[in-house]
Known about the structure:
The protein is α+β, with helices and mostly antiparallel strands. 51% of the residues lie in helices and 13% in strands.
Amino acid sequence: xxxxxxxxxxxxxxxxxxxxxxxxxxxxxxxxxxxxxxxxxxxxxxxxxxxxxxxxxxxxxxxxxxxxxxxxxxxxxxxxxxxxxxxxxxxxxxxxxxxxxxxxxxxxxxxxxxxxxxxxxxxxxxxxxxxxxxxxxxxxxxxxxxxxxxxxxxxxxxxxxxxxxxxxxxxxxxxxxxxxxxxxxxxxxxxxxxxxxxxxxxxxxxxxxxxxxxxxxxxxxxxxxxxxxxxxxxxxxxxxxxxxxxxxxxxxxxxxxxxxxxxxxxxxxxxxxxxxxxxxxxxxxxxxxxxxxxxxxxxxxxxxxxxxxxxxxxxxxxxxxxxxxxxxxxxxxxxxxxxxxxxxxxxxxxxxxxxxxxxxxxxxxxxxxxxxxxxxxxxxxxxxxxxxxxxxxxxxxxxxxxxxxxxxxxxxxxxxxxxxxxxxxxxxxxxxxxxxxxxxxxxxxxxxxxxxxxxxxxxxxxxxxxxxxxxxxxxxxxxxxxxxxxxxxxxxxxxxxxxxxxxxxxxxxxxxxxxxxxxxxxxxxxxxxxxxxxxxxxxxxxxxxxxxxxxxxxxxxxxxxxxxxxxxxxxxxxxxxxxxxxxxxxxxxxxxxxxxxxxxxxxxxxxxxxxxxxxxxxxxxxxxxxxxxxxxxxxxxxxxxxxxxxxxxxxxxxxxxxxxxxxxxxxxxxxxxxxxxxxxxxxxxxxxxxxxxxxxxxxxxxxxxxxxxxxxxxxxxxxxxxxxxxxxxxxxxxxxxxxxxx
Length: 742
């Protein structure tokens, strides 16, 4: 089943997450129509290779053309229209930057895998539960309801101001009519009666002015209360969800809803401002003793302007945190002289501001960091916000060509600090702009979440550990001295984040048994409720008896999965995190030949398999192979190793001891679809190959002595041609074969 077919079978709450990251940058119609083709391409490699990305883009357009021909024959007018539009978009938007579409598609496929992994996990962790609780959802609905009510109130007040204006015009007309009469006429009874009418009208005007000012005051108060409480909490919650999403957590949504609220509030405040201006205009034409306008209007206008200032300042947000396109799963880690992207949005979407706001990016502005390393940003660091580049028409700007460059110190050389010191330094990318609108000038500033600057890709794992620890441990968006005294983390939350590393990076998270093994490795305890883990224990102190830290060990496993055993991991056939002791408990009562796959605890980035066997006297014995590392797995796919693995017992012919994947899955049923080719029971020299040569493949072979329950050193794994093996079996006895491979 294709990945896209699995996505379509998800529950609605997960489908809503999928819907959030498909837009006009990569339309869902294309994902649906070209599902199998898209999943069969290496978009991640193309994201770092312009030539490959250009070829894939051209092939993508060819695939769209083929679909267009098909739907044209079916006379599906709507789909024809959409495909033509999409084809035009692909050609126009990505022809000059084909790697950008590769990055987008790669990220979409990765997010699909993460969501599929999350959907397969039976229990939500404490962090995810906190982000999706019913109180937050209820507050979101209340905010939207209140914003709508405020907008309606402002519009109703508009009608009151218009009625007041009409009433005053009638009063002006009548009053000027009387003023134009001769003095004798003014003493008539009719005129005196008209004066009484004018006095009544003036009383009504006074009442209506007070009423309008009171209504305006209530609208302002409601906006103030909403901004001070629920809207501020909503924005802080969104920023927290963004932090968690950056370290692999659930996708954060809600920014479009916030934009709608901010925009409606801004429109309401500008509407109130115009109402106050209209009252000022009415004041210049008519005033009287006790007139409420000159007393109340200045205070209300000052309050409106203050609310607009605060609303605009809060609306300037970093929509997508700094990230190198080459490492989309590692945001906020930036390498010197390597381009990174970052996107900002103004949540107040007003057409008058399109292309009118120029944003400037700087680094470490007015900030003291924990070292003397200083950086500057190279590339285009000033751009205008616009509504044309975003698929949803938001007022935003994306910097795509910024590069951090380290400045030389005053001594004339770059800062030279230890690896941990460098990866624990936090820096800040700042953005500033100015909004000029309707006579208001508002200076806006915002900053990215703290970033870590590295100069060598070998620093990436520890830098990413710093990003994880910071965003797990604090809501503070700008605590650059955080690692002067990093707080401990709750282990249950840390384990949840570690599971996210696997779901986001390699498509499948960790189950409770796997997490328990990691917890025991970190703490030495079976129970870890409310356990507080230190930063040093996680990333700086070596594991007992080892020359590496817990995080380096885990990162090496992630790299191994990604590059060498990804399909097996996604299928759930790699138990991986299980201790040697637990491994034997699981296998001891199983059928001989039952095996499981686990990650090495002593070798970085190693995977091994252990199988159970039974001796002639009925005793159970276990055999484990020396871990396979990336060097061996680069030469021979792991599924093929499992298929072709042979052992030679004393006085026996070579045979594959691996029969059932734990608990009882036939080996070929589990791994058959991942074999590089179907196994040929041993071929003869005449079966093929280069003329004059015997076709050969590598077959892993181990020798195990009868009187030893420990496996023979797998350094004796030998490459053996199947044809050679066939000839040996035809002409030599089992004892002679054993002697030959010893």
